Amino acid sequence: MDTPAPTPGPAPLPRFPADFLWGVSTSAHQIEGAVGEREASVWDAFTAREGVVRDGSTAEVACDHVRRYREDVGLLAGLGVGAYRFSVSWPRVNSPGGIGFYDRLVDELCAAGVRPVATLFHWDLPAGLDWLERDTAERFAAYVEVVAERLGDRVERWITLNEPAEHTLFGHALGVHAPGRALLFDALPVAHHQLLAHGLAVRALRAAGAARTGITNSHGPTWLASDDPADTEAAAFHDLLLNRLFAEPVLLGEYPDGMGELMPGSASQVAADLAVISEPLDFYGINYYAPTRVGAPLNTPSEFGGIPLPAELPFSVREITGRPVTDSGWPVVPEALTELLCGFRERYGDRLPPVVVTENGCAYDGLEDTERIAYLDAHIRALHAASAAGVDVRGYFVWTLLDNFEWAEGYTRRFGLVHVDRTTRRRTPKASYHWFREALREQRRPPAP
Ligand code: FCB
User: What 3-state DSSP class applies to 418?
Assistant: First the structure.
């Protein structure tokens, strides 16, 4: 497959500060492959089940990144990004020699002038562990110590967890992601134990003298289905569960709206945990994809991005109409990124550390991906608008470098700036790769006198 000619983009993007961190993100389970060289994770066990992944695929080979990482770092260098966010696989680190892979990757990145940003947990829990157990948080901190010790001299930024909300909701409440439990509200201990793991990890990183540390939460504005009180109440609950529950323990040291009472342990234990969870951070990572329109429960199950939601939830997700949708069925609403960031700044004021958008992107097929270019262009402008309105935004990472294993969607969603052939794993930069490279080059150009 030939690389398409660079498509001339729309008008140049607004300028960001010279030290703004531009990057792309990936995660271990979605690209690495080489599963035989590491312990099993909950995702290996989950994908072995019949019918849980749309195309019946697994991440056994994925993008074969463990073998092709040099080529992938070459793609990053060619793109001209300042940073690369990858995740470290806990099961790989548990395996003999496993951490050596990240050592080599980090060296390769540094040699290419790309700053490593490491996420310590992106959903691939070692198969024998369980977030329902408090002990998992302590084990996580011990693993983080090992990684910080080995890579801490070169990693530019650390991210403790990726999207604990989605891991709780999809993996433990609804059962559509690993480990495949459908516990609904009984999944709340999973949220608390991950947050505790985050706080313990921050302490471990600080003790190891590690560099800047943060967390990545996924957030999006909750839009009201109507002003009807039943809809307003349902929307507030959705916002509580998806936004506030994971932001407020970290930023404010408290659970919102009495949620702390639902967490495992005595009140004094939860209070002591919150002191750990709210360790000050250097930055707050936000993944943004789309807003959600929410209303009162309907008597029929609703859907969220193709995922069926049980009727017993106290809210329902409604369609956002009049917008283009990506291949994931998510509406394209760039201005909701401005709304989200300004809303966070308003809600949390000075308690909100500088923000880094650690993921933003879209699924579309094809190499001439004009829709992806339009998506990224519009979202970067929306980010600039938030920054102009006073939000302290320090970086933006595109999800993602390579077409990869998109969890329960298997290989049916292509989020990459680089196309990956499913049989040969050959990489072909898409038009969006060329567009982003040009946009970054423009950003680096000295401003006109
Ligand atoms: C986020 C995940 C990431 C990827 C994108 C599309 O929720 O963090 O791994 O699946 O969505």
Answer: strand
The H-assigned helical ranges of 80-211 are: 90-93, 98-111, 135-151, 164-168, 188-207
Active site includes 359?
Answer: yes
Question: How far is ligand 1, taken at its centre, from the CA of residue 174, in Å?
Answer: 17
For residue 449, what pLDDT band results from cuts at 50, 70 and 90? confident
Task: Decide if 276 contacts 203 (C-beta within 8 A).
Answer: yes
292 lines ligand 1 (CB under 6 A): no
pLDDT digit string, tens, across residues 104-121: 999 999 999 999 999 999
Q: CATH number of 21-218+280-291+330-444: 1.10.287.110, 3.20.20.80, 3.90.950.20, 3.40.50.300? A: 3.20.20.80
Per DSSP, 446 falls in state P
**For residue 401, is it left (φ>0), alpha (ψ between -120 and 50) or beta?**
alpha
Residue 162 beta carbon below 6 angstroms from any ligand 1 atom: yes
Interval between CA 447 and ligand 1 midpoint (Å): 35
327 CB within 6 A, ligand 1: no
pTM higher than the cut 0.85: yes
Best mutation site among 124, 219, 406, 414 for ligand 1 pocket (most ligand atoms within 8 Å of CB):
406
The span from the CA of 267 to the CA of 158, in Å, is 30
List the residue whose alpha carbon is closest to atom 4 of ligand 1: 406
For helices 335-348 and 245-252, what crossing angle results, to 10°?
A: 40
Please report the atom of ligand 1 found closest to the CA of residue 363.
6
Catalytic residue among 163, 248, 279, 371: 163
- The token pair that represents 299 in the structure block: 């008597």
CA atoms within 13 A on the CB side of 217: 25
Q: Report pLDDT digits (tens) over 163-201.
A: 999 999 999 999 999 999 999 999 999 999 999 999 999
Ligand 1: does its nearest atom lie under 6 Å from the Cβ of 316? no
Q: Where are the domains of the chain?
A: 21-218+280-291+330-444
- pLDDT category at 394 given cuts 50, 70, 90 is very high
For tokens 């607004």, name the residue: 14
CA of residue 227 to ligand 1 center, whole Å: 31
Residue with token string 């801490």? 152
